[in-house]
């Protein structure tokens, strides 16, 4: 793996030539096995009796390759996206276009090389009809050429890497979640007008961290704000003290951050323990204070202001139903990642219904995906035909105590936010 790819993923890789040879041999074996028996076109045995009136053949299952993190820093995100998908699929009786839905799940491992191997397995061995998932921007960027080359319809259910729907866009790649630009660009102007004129930026040192801070900076400085400094700890970090010391020294009025999963819990708690909550406001991309991490962050997150494409406190009948259904099925609250899984499942089902289950013609299938449009618990949902990225409202939210529980409450809305596409 090149250094450039490793930096974008935010990890170091132990991938060696020996591993590569082992992997290549395993992949060759898998392809061979698929060629021997996987095709389903087996000749009938000589002694099989012929049924005079054979039943109509059952349609083959719709195979969906799901690549999500089930381990490491973003493990909870993978679990939430999966549960959101499972909730929607259950509501349509696990069927699309007359075919049973079969999920083939693989762990993204926060590792581009492992994810490439698993994507090739989806294509060559599992022969999936389409693929979804991927949380880490760097991983998603590393998979782009393989997916585009195989003409595999791929609906990204998290990774925000801007280029995947800009310079590196593909007719086969869609994003139902957000671009790294969308929530942070929307937050920039709000923070300048309502919270602080001088801020310090911090995020993990990889593609998503850099892009989210750049998007905030774009609108915040355009409005007149000043960025006093920026600091980028490694992804999956434990001790934020040296980075918090830099922030303290700069004396900003607010910090604007992006952290998610276990990083978000550690950063927000240590920010409070270090005493910074008493001297500056805490703002950021909504992932940093999202419902999946709020119970562990507790009062350290109270009052945090963020931009995001969904909010627990979004007061609409559709969101209320989604929250109730999720709670009933999983006995816990939903979060933005479960919402992304839920909407992604709906995109898949509506597109496969539109082609009546015939997924063989990939160009017809991606045309059907691009036409999917609906009212989501997040608000209106549609794909931008120029980029295949979702166009959506962005909510400015504040963490408040709602009847004894901390939740994100909507305090402003930026309507119809479309990634600029370049
Ligand atoms: C990303 O890598 O794109 C990402 C990861 C977690 C939350 C949001 C974005």
Attribute tags:
alpha/beta; 41% helix; nine-stranded mixed sheet; 422 residues; six-stranded mixed sheet; binds benzoic acid; globular; disordered N terminus
Shape: globular
Helix-and-strand structural type:
alpha/beta
> Beta-sheet strand percentage?
15-25%
Largest sheet: 9 strands, mixed
Radius of gyration over alpha carbons?
Answer: 23 Å
Q: Report the bound ligands by name, code or SMILES.
A: benzoic acid
Poorly predicted parts: 1-9, 11-49
Question: Percent of residues in helical segments?
Answer: 40-55%
- Quote the distance from N terminus to C terminus: 27 Å
Order of helices and strands: HHEHEEHEHEEHEHEHEHEHEHHHEEEE
- Total helical elements: 13
Average pLDDT for all residues: 90
Number-wise, the strands total 15
Topology:
Blueprint: H1 3-9, H2 17-37, E1 62-68, H3 75-91, E2 95-96, E3 99-107, H4 112-126, E4 130-133, H5 137-149, E5 154-156, E6 173-175, H6 181-194, E7 198-202, H7 207-223, E8 226-231, H8 241-250, E9 254-257, H9 261-273, E10 281-285, H10 294-297, E11 305-308, H11 317-330, H12 336-354, H13 362-371, E12 373-376, E13 379-383, E14 390-402, E15 405-417
The structure holds benzoic acid.
Benzoic acid is lined by residues 74, 135-137, 158-160, 208, 260, 287.
Describe this structure in words.
By secondary structure, this protein is α/β, with parallel strands linked by helices. Helix content is 41%, strand content 21%. It is built from 13 helices and 15 strands. Strands 7, 8, 9, 10, 11, 12, 13, 14 and 15 form a nine-stranded mixed β-sheet that branches. Strands 2-3-1-4-5-6 form a six-stranded mixed β-sheet, with helices on both faces. Helix 1 packs across helix 5, helix 2 runs parallel beside helix 4 (112-126) and helix 6 packs parallel to helix 7. The longest helix has 21 residues, at 17-37. It starts with a helix and ends in a 5-residue tail after the last strand.
């Amino acid at each position: 793996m090149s250094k450039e790819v490793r930096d974008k993923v935010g990890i170091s890789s132990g991938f060696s030539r020996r591993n590569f040879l082992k992997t290549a041999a395993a992949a060759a074996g898998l392809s061979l096995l698929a060629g021997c028996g996987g095709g389903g076109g087996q000749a009938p045995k000589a002694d099989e009796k012929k049924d005079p009136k054979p039943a109509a053949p059952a349609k083959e299952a719709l195979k969906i390759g799901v690549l999500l993190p089930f381990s490491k820093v973003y493990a909870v995100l993978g679990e939430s996206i999966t549960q959101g998908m499972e909730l929607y699929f259950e509501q349509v009786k696990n069927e699309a276009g007359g075919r049973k839905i079969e999920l083939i799940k693989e762990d993204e491992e926060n590792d581009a090389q492992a994810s490439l191997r698993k994507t090739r397995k989806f294509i060559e061995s599992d022969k999936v009809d389409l693929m979804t998932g991927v949380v880490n921007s760097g991983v998603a960027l590393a998979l782009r050429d393989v997916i585009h080359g195989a003409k595999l319809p791929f609906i990204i259910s998290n990774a925000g890497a801007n280029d995947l729907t800009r310079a590196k866009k593909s007719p086969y790649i869609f994003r139902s979640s957000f671009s790294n630009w969308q929530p942070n660009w929307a937050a920039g102007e709000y923070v300048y007008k309502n919270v602080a004129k001088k801020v310090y930026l911090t995020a993990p040192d990889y593609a998503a961290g850099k892009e989210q801070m750049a998007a905030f900076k774009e609108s915040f400085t355009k409005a007149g704000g000043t960025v006093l400094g920026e600091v980028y700890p490694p992804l999956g970090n434990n001790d934020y003290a040296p980075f918090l010391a830099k922030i303290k020294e700069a004396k900003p009025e607010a910090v604007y951050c992006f952290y998610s999963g276990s990083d978000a819990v550690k950063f927000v708690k240590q920010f409070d323990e270090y005493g910074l909550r008493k001297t500056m406001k805490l703002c950021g991309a909504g992932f940093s204070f999202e419902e999946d991490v709020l119970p562990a962050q507790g009062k350290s997150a109270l009052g945090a202001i963020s931009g995001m494409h969904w909010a627990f406190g979004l007061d609409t009948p559709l969101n209320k139903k989604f929250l109730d259904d999720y709670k009933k099925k999983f006995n816990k609250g939903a979060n933005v990642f479960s919402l992304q899984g839920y909407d992604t499942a709906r995109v898949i089902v509506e597109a496969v219904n539109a082609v009546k289950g015939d997924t063989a013609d990939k160009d017809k299938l991606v045309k059907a995906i691009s036409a999917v449009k609906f009212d989501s618990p997040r608000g209106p949902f549609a794909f931008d035909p120029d980029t295949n990225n979702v166009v959506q409202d962005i909510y400015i939210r504040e963490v408040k105590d709602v009847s004894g529980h901390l939740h994100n409450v909507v305090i402003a809305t930026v309507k119809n936010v479309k990634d600029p596409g370049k």
